[in-house]
Structure formats: C-alpha cells, structure tokens
Amino acid sequence: MTYREIGISIRSAYSQGWPDDASRLAFRTETRKLFRDAGWQVEETPLDSGHCVTVRNGNDALYLHPDLFSGVMQEDHIPELQRLLSGANTFRVLGTDLRRECFDLTDEEYRQRLEEQTERIDNAILEACKTKQKNLFRTGPIAERIGQQFAIRRLQDWERSGPYIAEGYVGERIEQLIADGRLIIAQTRYGQGLRTATEAELRMTENADTMQMHF
C-alpha cells in the first residue's frame, strides 16, 4: 500500500483568525462529528489551547487547521475522504495536494535502506567536499545537507522530527572517509573544515598502507 503526505486546502470562516466564537465552535463541532461518524478517532484538545485537532484512522492521520487539513493517508483512502468532506457546512474544499510518498519503516529498516546506498552517499560527500585548492575547506552542516538528499519520509516523521537517521548515517560515513584518507579534515576560522583528498594524497595513503602491511 502507498501512503502520501496530503494537504487539503479549505475555506472556512477563518481568515487569520475567527470572526467570532460561534464560528469557531461550529467548525470545531462539525469537523469532530464528521470524522467520528466515519470511524476516525478524534484527539481532543481544549478549546483555548491554541492547537487544532488531530484525527486518526489506522495509519491515516490529519491535523485539522481551519485553512488546511494536512497529514498522511493511504492513497486509495483519499477519494472516500473527499466524499466525506464534500458534505460539510462550515467549510468547503478548495483543492487536494498529494505530496511525498511516505513509508512504514522502523529505524532499523530505515538504516538498512541507507546502507544499501553507501556508495552513492560516499560519492555525494566527496563531491560536496571538493575544492580547487588544498588550503580550501568546506565548512557548515555537510552531514545535514547530504542527509537531506537521502532522507526517506516515514509515516511517523509527519508529526515529529524523530531521530535524524539519514544525517547520522552520513556523519558516520564522513568519519569513515576521514579514517580512509579520502577526506582531509582541518580546523579553519569558521570551524571544522573538510575537503576531498587529491589523487596524490590518495596514492600516498595507499603507499603508506602497503608499507604497514609489509612491516
């Protein structure tokens, strides 16, 4: 089954705020009833909490902001949801935006998928750290940037940042590339810097390894 991030734009009485308490209460009451009657679970929040309601049906979950219902849904459940919302009185649907695919993965399964791409990740790191001169180094959140390229969107990541698994794995690969002599590390005025080793430096590393093996 395929899950997608979804955004459903709606028009209600809300426009940078509610015009009155009656409008807010009517929207709140109707949305809860619509979803409850359809078998969804409603996670209640106090009226004055400043937070909107989240509703769930299995792995499907939506955050009911009066401008936008957003969350994750099984793709073949979406037509049924659209029919449900078409009968509302306190709002009307303007459009439905299907976004990234989401996967139902444990942390261990996520890491396994990253390990299967180790060569591609290493190449991306080395490409990002290339410099034209040996005295130049790349600084900044390199692991974060590369991690975003290989991040896998999961169901549980919709509403919590969760462990930064991709970023952490890229950080591990950077450490390994440094240990292998494929990345050069140095302290710069802007903090720790990295650059990809030159061909000459790689040959020196290989020669040193060969000498150690014979020693």
Short description:
This protein has 215 residues and is of the alpha+beta class.
DSSP strand (E) fraction?
15-25%
How are strands sequenced across the largest beta sheet?
A: 2-3-4-5-1-6
**What oligomerization state is this entry in?**
single chain
Order of helical and strand elements: EHEEEEHEHHHHEEH
End-to-end CA span: 57 Å
Describe this protein's structure:
This protein has 215 residues and is of the alpha+beta class. It is built from seven helices and eight strands, in the order βαββββαβααααββα. The chain has helices at residues 21-37, 78-85, 107-115, 118-128, 142-150, 165-179, 199-214, and strands spanning 3-12, 41-43, 54-57, 60-64, 68-74, 91-102, 183-188, 191-196. The strands form two sheets. The protein has a six-stranded antiparallel sheet with strand order 2-3-4-5-1-6, covered by helices on one side. α5 packs across α6 (165-179).
How is this fold's topology laid out?
Elements: E1 3-12, H1 21-37, E2 41-43, E3 54-57, E4 60-64, E5 68-74, H2 78-85, E6 91-102, H3 107-115, H4 118-128, H5 142-150, H6 165-179, E7 183-188, E8 191-196, H7 199-214
Antiparallel strand pairs: 1-5, 1-6, 2-3, 3-4, 4-5, 7-8
Provide key terms for this protein.
single chain; 215 residues; two-stranded antiparallel ribbon; 7 helices; 25% strand
